[in-house]
């Protein structure tokens, strides 16, 4: 095998270049990493992965909760625009569907905007796949909007805690 600036290995008469993955010993010759050194690096990477991955895995639930807050704020904005055009909020019976399709029953929609009030022409589901809960007149304001969280049930604590329009900052 011919010596070059970068180390090479001879296997079946085919040289394989290892580039910068070689160490110099005291005499200036290249030598490879030992199995022990490689195993130490693998163990260190495993420990780092064990510490970092659990932190990353908890983030999707936090992201869903943030998405629900943003969607509730967006729906609230659409409800305010609806009220500006029609003079009132949709009733509980008309629901959020009144934001994408002019209601045919209940209080007439008056100057309902052609094309509706929500992007994509549909009422979004919460990040857990459930319908948002809409109440008008509301208990906490003109109208109340809630996402019941991953359990889909009212109330709850921790990750199952509801996200309510009147509690958003």
Short description:
The chain has 169 residues and is α+β, with helices and mostly antiparallel strands. It is built from two helices and seven strands. The protein folds into two domains: 8-57, no CATH class; 59-167, Glycoprotein, Type 4 Pilin.
- Binned strand content: 5-15%
Largest sheet: 3 strands, antiparallel
Query: How much is the average pLDDT?
Result: 80
Specify Rg, calculated over alpha carbons. 31 Å
Taken in chain order, the helices and strands follow as EEEEHHEEE
Number of strands: 7
Which terms summarize this structure?
169 residues; alpha+beta; Glycoprotein, Type 4 Pilin; three-stranded antiparallel β-sheet; two-stranded antiparallel sheet; 2 helices; 7 strands; 30% helix; elongated
Structure notes:
- There is one protein chain.
- With 169 residues, the protein is α+β, with helices and mostly antiparallel strands.
- The protein has two domains: 8-57, no CATH class; 59-167, Glycoprotein, Type 4 Pilin, CATH 3.30.700.
- It has helices spanning 35-57, 59-86, and strands at residues 8-11, 14-17, 23-24, 30-31, 133-135, 144-147, 163-164.
- The strands form three sheets. A three-stranded antiparallel beta sheet has the order 5-6-7, with helices on one face.
- A hairpin with an 8-residue loop joins strand 5 (133-135) and strand 6 (144-147).
- The relative contact order is 0.10.
- Residues 9-18 have low confidence and may be disordered.
């Amino acid at each position: 095998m011919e010596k070059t600036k970068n180390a090479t290995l001879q296997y079946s008469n085919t040289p394989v270049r290892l580039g910068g993955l070689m160490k110099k010993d005291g005499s200036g010759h290249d030598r490879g990493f030992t199995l022990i050194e490689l195993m130490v690096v693998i163990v260190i990477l495993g420990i780092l992965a064990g510490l970092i991955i659990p932190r990353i895995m908890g983030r999707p639930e936090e992201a869903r909760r943030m998405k629900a807050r943003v969607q509730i704020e967006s729906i609230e904005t659409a409800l305010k625009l609806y009220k500006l055009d029609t003079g009132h909020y949709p009733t509980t019976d008309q629901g959020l569907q009144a934001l994408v399709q002019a209601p045919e029953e209940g209080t007439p929609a008056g100057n309902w905007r052609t094309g509706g009030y929500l992007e994509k022409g549909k009422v979004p589901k919460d990040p857990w796949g459930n319908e948002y809960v809409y109440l008008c007149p509301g208990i906490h304001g003109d109208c109340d909007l809630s996402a019941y969280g991953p359990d889909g049930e009212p109330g709850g604590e921790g990750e199952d805690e509801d996200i309510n329009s009147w509690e958003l900052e």
